[in-house]
Each structure stands twice: as C-alpha cells, then as structure tokens.
Amino acid sequence: MEKITEKVLLEKGSPRTDKLEQIKTLNLSKMGLKLQDLPVKLLSRLCSLERWDLSGNRLQEFPKKLELRKLRYLDLSDNQMEDVTTLESLSSLEELKMDDNFYITVSDNYKLMVLLPNLRIYNSKDISTTANHLRFVYRDNLMTRITALWEKSFSLPDPITAEKMSSLEKNFVNTARHQVKFGPSSVSDFTKWRVEILAKEYLRSLTEPKEDSNSQECAEVKENGDVSTPSKRKRTEAASGINLMPRKQLRSDLPASPVQNSPLKISLRPKRQSETQTSISPLRTDRALSTPPKTQPKAETPRRSLKVPQTKEEKTPVERRKDSSKGRNAHVLPITKTLNKTQQPVRLQPLHVLQCHSKYDSSEDFSTQLWACAFQPCSEFSGDGGESRLVATCGGDSLCVIDCETGVVMKKYKVPGEEFFSLAWSTVLMSRGEKAPAQLCSILAAGGRRGLVKLIHPRNNVAYGEFRASRKSLSALRFNHQQGNFLFTGSYDNKIMLWDIGGVDSSYNFKVVQLLVLEVSTTPLHICLPPTSPSTQLLSACERGLHCYNTQLSTNSTTKSRSKEMEITFPIYEEEDDDHDYHTIDGLSFLTDDIVASKSHMHGFIYLWSWSRTRSQRPDKRGGAVCAVVLAELQWANTEIPYLALNTCPDRAYVVCGDNEGRIWTHHVPNIQTTSCQKEKPIPPTEVLEWPSPMRKGLGQMEGPSINSVAMDSELLYLVALSDKNLVIIWRREESS
C-alpha cells in the first residue's frame, strides 16, 4: 500500500498540475487503503475535486470531517463500507457507486438518500423519485406520528433545566423509536434511525423554534427480522409487548445510554434504576413449571425430562440464606485470602429485563423457555481487542442478538415450527473474489428440535445456510476454538458428530463435510473441549454421566465412528439409591486450562476438579471409569430441577450458575490450585444475585423463574441469564470507586 502524500495525489490526479487545489479528478482505486490511510488535512486541500475513484480498497467508513464542496461523483464500490452516515459531509454529491460492499443494506441505501440531498444517481440508477419520497413524504408521515406521540404522552418540564431536558429527550426519543411505526418492516432500521433524528429535532423546535431542523444525524444501523416463539414451561404473566426488528450497528456507534433503547419495559423492583429496560429474547420450550411432571418423555422432546417438585426440606438451606436478608446483595461473603486488584470480586447490578421470544408476538407469553446464550467473539468488532457487548440467545422458534449495554435486540431470526436449544459462535474466512483478500467474519450456528443446524452471518443479517446433523433433536453445539470451521453437534439419537463447515464466499456458498461420529450411550447435554487440546480430546456431560472421547482425526479415512475413551465419575455416585440418581451431569465448563467445573442438579454443589490429574490415573488404558480428582466443592442451590447450566469466566476466575428461584449463584475462586485439595467443606458463594422482581402491568410482581443458562463476557462487564419465563436478564458490573 502506497502512502498518500501530496506527490501521490498530484500523480494520480488530473489535470496535470503542481497544486492540489486545481485537481478535478482523482483515481486512488485498488491501493488497499483503509480509513487511517486517508489524511483529512491533506485531502481537504482538494477544493476543486469533482470526481473521485476509491473503488477496490478496504474502507469501512469515510473520513467524517472531510468536506469537498465541489465533489459530484464518488466511486466506493468493492470496499468494506459499514457506516454510510460518514458520507454526510459530501452535501454536493450527485452520483455515488457502492456496489460490492457486502455490509450495505436496504436501510443503508435509504439513509444515503436522506443524508445526501443532491444524490440523483446511485449504483448507476436514477433514484430521484425514491429519494424525494424519503426526504419529504416519508419524513412528513413520521413527523405526524412523532407529534401525536408528544401531545399524547409528553410535555415540557416546569421549570426547564438542562438536566430535565436531557432526561426528557432520552425518554421521548427512546419511546418514539419503539412506538412510531411506518413503512415496511424490511427497512425498520432506517425508520427507527430517522425517527430518532426527527424526534430530537421536534423537541428542539419546542424550545428553539428557529433552529435548522437538518441537524447532524446519528449513525445507527439496524436490520430487519421477525418476532415470535413457542413455549416450554407453563406460567403465564403479562407485560406490554413490542415488535423488535434486528439491526446492524457498529460497535463504536452503539448508543451510550444503558437504559433508553430497549424494546419492552418491565419495571424492576430493585431500586437503583427508575427505568430498567426490557427487551425480548429467546428461550427453550420443554420443561415443566413449578410442579413439573415426573414422567420422562421421549428422547426427541429435549429438555423435558427429570422435572421433579422440590420439597420444603430440600429448600430449607436456600430459604435460610434468603431470609437472612431481603436485599439483593445480601449474600456477599468475604474472600479469605488477600487478592490483587485484578482478583477482586465484582459487583453486579441488574440493567435490563427483556422479553423477545414471545409466541405469536404476545406480550402475555411467559411460558416460552430460553435455553442457550453466548457472547460474540471480539474479533469482528474493531480489531482492538475490546470487550464484546453483543450476546446471542435462543429459544422457541427464534434467535436474537442483543446489545447488553442498551438492551436493544440488534438482530432477530425466526424459523416457524423450530425450537432452538443450542447455539455457538465461531470465526470463519469469507472469500471476496479472486483479487480481494479473504476476511474473517463471525458466524452463529444454532440447532434444536428439527435436527438442522442453521448458519447465520449476523453482521450482514444473512441466514446463509443449513444442513441436517441428525434426524432427532440437537441438544448441544460447540466449535473448536482453535479451528473455527470445526463444529461438534450433540443429538438425542445419542451421537456427537464433528463437521467441517468450511468458510463462505461472497455469494454465501459453503460446503459441509462430516469428519467424525462419536457413539454416546445417552443424550449429550453439553460438549466441552479442553483449552489446550481441543483437537484431540472432548468431554461430554450427558444424561447418564460424564464421558471423555479421543477426537484425533485419522489420516486414513474422513469419517470414523468411535466409542468413549473413559467415563469420569464422582464420589457422590456412591450415595445413590432408588430416589436419587446423581449421574445426570447438566453443567460443564473449563475454569482454567486444567480446572473443570461440573454439576448435577441433585448434588446441591458444584465440583471443581483437575482434568490432568484425573486423566493421569489411567494413561495407558482404554474404556472403564476413573474418579474425578476433586479440588473443591462450591455451594449451590438444593433443587431437583435439571438443565440449569453453569458457566465460567476464566479471566475473572468466576463460576456462575442460576437456580430454580431466579437467583444467580456467583463464585469467585482465584485461589483454587491443582496441587491442593479443598473439598473438605463446600465453599460458600461470593454473592447470590436475587431475582430482580420485574413488575407486570396489572399483574404485580413476577416470581423468580428457573434460570436455564448464563453467559459472561471475558471481562465480566456483563452477565446474561435466560429463564423459563421468556425473560432475558442482563446484569452489568458496577465499577469500584
């Protein structure tokens, strides 16, 4: 890539001159340029520039402060443009080419027509009629609805202060974005973006009537999706519903407000926020309610088995802890050893309660269950190693991608008749043609009752393919973190399969190859790959035990069926009787490269055990069983409700698991060592996060549901929990003073 200097501009420009100010045409195509390669100060001297070719580069956005008042033609085709609002400064632009920019959506096209008032030719087509409709007719319709909303529900504060106006603006704009509807759902992102701008303009006009309404518009990109989901447990309570459309948004452009952009609002009892957001998210259907059935259904009805009512005696230890204090932070227990600042336990506060997987879009659906959630890897955000704030959740017939900070459902995907039970993120290569280099992109895989794996590229809002992994329901998905195109699927036909899903090309063509079949004696509930050897070993938490497999691929054949290498047992198995079966392992995750956290719903605690020391007990034998080398036991709820999955945050040394009363048990365990056994006495939780008790309109407070799954980002800035009542709960870390 050649550095852009005055000499380069003079060589690439015409007419031939020795002054930048006299250049009228400039060709900087196919130079591999990125945003940082365009020096704004130097380019601003091109005051006579009329035509500019920037095609075939790697631009994701245009320099925001670059004003070229005479520029009439711009070619940005074959780039990687994402944020079209950065072109707003080119107010004189009449013709624009944006072909072969994979992330540009219909909503982005509409935004360009509004932002560029003189734009007539777009991608070689005359768009004058459409542009004028958007600039005037569409705007007037939206403004009429915004005005009606204001007159119905809002008024200026008395007296008018900056603080009150700021709060009013946030509330009004947020309400307008979610209540003002106009136009087709396929451009809902554009509509909400435009509504936000117009709502701010309208509010300013009430206090500053002479101010120009063409204020600078914010860059938010959303994409369309649908809303609806089946159910799982049965408890029905109501809350006001809102239809959320998926949206694409750059990480740097995400709204700063933590509370203003969520779809539904359910008031949270815990005081610290007067407005806590409520959006909608996915769930799993198939588990009984407060009095679940004891009969076990067919294997292909995932997650329905083993629900047993809990007796008062079994609840007593938990209830005693609850009665000891009514505050949600009452269960903070001291860590005995002195910790470094990075080892200090975190404090979490509830931020959003979302309801986004409702069956038939009903606000009264509190029976759809949510089953799996995972944070997007950071690699596709900005490349700066920043934390991820997007979490994917699934359940019912839909899958959502949620921005944890704002509570906005960014994307939503619905498959009528499906019921999603598992999802997983990965990063694969996307080819962009013969001359363009391949680039990494984050994808989602999701599966459930139909036995199909759906492959989705959320950033471009494309569900680009599917393949059949089983004739029965899929219970677990897991990508190899060292080889992102390798996907393991667990299914209710007692098999775990390894697939090579490859990458994708610019047309989203892909190829799937089956590499390995592992024969499991029972239904796999979780698949875990050792951090240091993800390509050779696999752990599977199953309905009947914890099994280990050798997944080393053979060079002799592409597909090979194998049975388990060994079973890992636990001391509590010796206490089993006719009424207590402790073999169901429904929680499994690595805390470090060697320490594993696992649980059974009937144990009342979580085991931390050494993977290396457990395996070393029988290094030369195959088959059979070995007892886990337990390092510590973590206190957890007394419950017989299964499938309450635990999760870990290795960077923060946290183990987290929800219970059947809406609480989140957090354990900060930075001092567990593989060399010492600490299992003599269960370690109490560092903190138990109480159920935030959302208030439903007309129905009062909602009781705590079962927490089916939890997820944390790598820095534990956010904690996300999924319930069996169609609710996603998001906690945010409280920064220490």
TrEMBL record:
It holds the Pfam family LRR_LRWD1. Residues 208-225, 310-326 have a biased composition (Basic and acidic residues). It is found in: Chromosome, Centromere, Kinetochore; Chromosome, Telomere; Cytoplasm, Cytoskeleton, Microtubule organizing center, Centrosome; Nucleus. Keywords: Centromere, Chromatin regulator, Chromosome, Cytoplasm, Cytoskeleton, DNA replication, Kinetochore, Leucine-rich repeat, Nucleus, Repeat, Telomere, WD repeat. Residues 208-328 are annotated as: Disordered. One of its GO terms (biological process) is chromatin organization. Residues 343-732 form the Leucine-rich repeat and WD repeat-containing protein 1 WD domain. Belongs to the LRWD1 family. This is Leucine-rich repeat and WD repeat-containing protein 1. It comes from Austrofundulus limnaeus. The lineage of its organism: Eukaryota, Metazoa, Chordata, Craniata, Vertebrata.
